[in-house]
Amino acid sequence: MERKPFRKLTEIAAPLRRLNVDTDAIIPGAQLLKVTKGGFGQGLFYNWRYKENGEEEPDFILNKAPYQHAKILLAGHNFACGSSREVAVWALRDYGFRCVIAPSFGNIFYSNALKNGFLPVVIAEDDVERISDEVEASQGAGKVTVDLEKCRVVSPGGCEYAFEVPENYRQAMLDALDPIAATLRFKDDIIAFQNRDRDRRSWAYFGPRKIDDDSFNMGDV
Amino acid sequence: MMGGETLLDKIWRDHVIRDFGDNTYLLHVDRAFLHELAAVAFESLKNARRPILSPELTFATVDHLLDTTPGRGDDTIIPNGKDFIQKLRAGARETGISFFDIDTAEQGIVHVIAPEQAVALPGTVFVCCDSHTSTIGGLGALAWGIGTTDIEHVMATGGIVQTKPQTMRVNFTGALPRGLTAKDLILHLIGEISADGGNGYAIEYAGPVIEQLGVEERLSICNMSIELSARLGLIAPDDVTYEYLAGRPYAPKGAQWDMALSYWRSLPSDPSAQYDRVIDIDCSVLTPQVTWGTSPEHVIGFHDHVPDPSQAETKREQASMSRALDYMELKPGMRIAGLPINAAFIGSCTNSRLSDLRAAAKVLEGRKIAEGVMAICSPGSAQTKRLAEAEGIDRIFKDAGFEWRESGCSLCMSGGAGGERFPDHARVVSSTNRNFEHRQGRNVKSHLASPETVAASAVAGRIAIAEHQ
Ligand code: SF4
User: Fold this and answer.
1) For burial by CB atoms within 10 Å, which of A110, A212, B248, B323 has the most?
2) Cα–Cα distance measured from residue A200 to residue A159, given in angstroms and rounded to the nearest whole number
């Protein structure tokens, strides 16, 4: 998946007023069966978006105008708790979201999101509510701004809320850097550590093999 | 820093490849374990022309999608399951990692087989692409679930970038009442501190009650750390751990074992170590636990009544409880005991080990499950199944009216295990870890409990506990 740099976006935001939304709700098990990293948008919130007979559920927020074009999700406390399935991030991303704003996140989801260049923004519960109220009052017309350079969320009415993101992830998102490439900048540290460790804790390895520069290149193994 | 080091501190410091500052580290990973849902990792790495740095430290099995009905093969009830299984197998062959395929003696739910085969060891950093990897902490390892992007990162670099979690210590004190199980302890804790109560923490479970538990029960406790939203759970290794591991297939042997042992003995937290949060749980007053709602925190003692949302502390909690009651078709004030059930399930990475099956068999011996109840047992691994059969446990289950399945995730997650699921709207008592809406089938109402309680309920046809409980 090609990474896009994330700097600043101003978009429609959908308030999903539910607590503890788990990863099963974000993408039910039956919707995650593809050996790829794309095309999961259809399965997003499947059991909420569709009725048992497969028809759209008209009351669900993402089935209402203009929220079906939302790129920002305003969520409740402990959003995306549950499993480590990274598909939860891909489903949100494939559907078209680029950012979720919530008072707290399931922590595996949180780090999966950052690694995929998908921004999880933590701001206080009351503030999420206030932004959601403003969005609803404007019937979705009022856009929300998320600025990763300044680490600020701006509500439709112009209120600003600061947020924090771990700096190494923020940089990687601004630069659209893939995490393996980022780590392999420290290849020498890895080689030194592992070769020392293979002597020190030999019981944790299976045999005396050492690693070197070539171990990171195709054709070595 | 004042005070000594915790178990977490010690394992952590011995794995730091690089300290990035702001509490973020590049850590060495000792073992990475994959299952078929992560099959895409192989393709992804290949496309990027990146080899697996240490194939000998990388393992894989099939558990999530494959069927658990006897005679199963690569075909799964769900159309694409086969794709995952075959891509995983192909990736494993091509890269030379250890692969525990369908119908091998080692196959099983990854969190069951990693300790069983001693692929997981105390003092190691262990990752797997599944949230319940926290299970492995029961051996005294740092183990947590990661996503596919991260597992690729581990395979390519041998390391993982992590922030160091805060530490919580939970002391289980007092004497454990008869018939109370590890499952009851962890469910009770979740009810006490909420499903968000461990958010971001590494939780060390300790105290006299933990010390008396066997390794399998410790694994069950650490398993549900994730239902507390904790990053991981862990328990200091001790002689019980070493006795369990000695001689298992991937455990160190001879001089290596002695070296490991002396290192492991240095790992338990120093008495002067400080934790960010400490919780004490008096176990002597506990009764068997059963969930009533759609979050593991919606849990009560067997003799208690379903709570009233109007008593909730916050409006939001109130709303969440009301929604749960609607979904579960329950009313405040009802007793959980005696609620009629349609189905019972014993399996999953929480409670499908030999000790769980033995405990359930004790309840089932000489009894029949109630008319109309669908009861299924899926042992956690091929080895567990074999050992159980050698003891005649399968006979007890079958004679009672249970279906005796192959090992896998099975009915823990509908749509996860080859599409196996309970009938729509069924009320199920389950030894699993998640009672989320639709988790075990469309509109299925899941009540989490210990294997003993599941077995007793299957016999009674309603939520019940065993006589000795
Ligand atoms: S048994 Fe259930 S909880 Fe455990 S790994 Fe399988 S699906 Fe996940």
Assistant:
1) A110
2) 55
DSSP assignment letter at A116: T
CATH superfamily of B7-161: Aconitase, domain 3 (3.30.499.10)
Nearest to B88 by CA among B119, B69, B66: B66
CA pair distance A175, B385, nearest whole angstrom = 51
* E strand residue ranges, chain A: 8-11, 13-15, 72-74, 99-102, 119-122, 144-147, 152-154, 160-162
Q: Give pTM, 2 decimals.
A: 0.86
Beta carbons within 10 angstroms of residue B274's beta carbon: 16
Q: How confident is the model at residue A2 (pLDDT cuts 50, 70, 90)?
A: low
Q: Is the CB of B193 under 6 A from ligand 1?
A: no
Question: 3-class SS at B63?
Answer: coil
- Identify all chain B residues contacting A76, using CB atoms and an 8 Å cutoff: 316
For chain B, give every domain's residue range. 7-161, 289-460
Q: Which residues contact B321 (CB under 8 A, 6 or more apart)?
A: B293, B298, B307, B309, B312
- How open is the CA angle A7-A151-A183, to the nearest 5 degrees? 65
Q: Is A132 on the interface with B (CB under 8 A)?
A: no
| Substitution target from A40, A104, A202, A203 for chain B, most B beta carbons within 10 A | A203
Query: Which residue of chain B comes nearest to A190, CA vs CA?
Result: B17
Tell me how far apart the 2 most distant CA atoms of chain B are, in Å: 62
The amino acid present at B26, given as its one-letter code, is: L
CB contact under 8 A, A116 and B149: yes
Phi, psi of B36 (to 5 degrees): -60, -25
Task: Indicate the CATH number of B289-460 among 3.40.50.720, 3.40.980.10, 3.30.70.20, 3.30.499.10.
Answer: 3.30.499.10
Which of A20-24, B182-186, B338-342 is the least confident region?
Answer: A20-24
Residue B395: name the closest of B451, B353, B357 by CA. B357
pLDDT at A84 (0 to 100): 67
Helix (H) or strand (E) holding B28: strand B24-28
Contact between B339 and B446 under an 8 Å Cβ cutoff? The reply is no
Domains and CATH numbers, chain A: 8-177 (3.20.19.10), 186-220 (no CATH)
> A88 — alpha (psi -120 to 50), left (phi > 0) or beta?
alpha
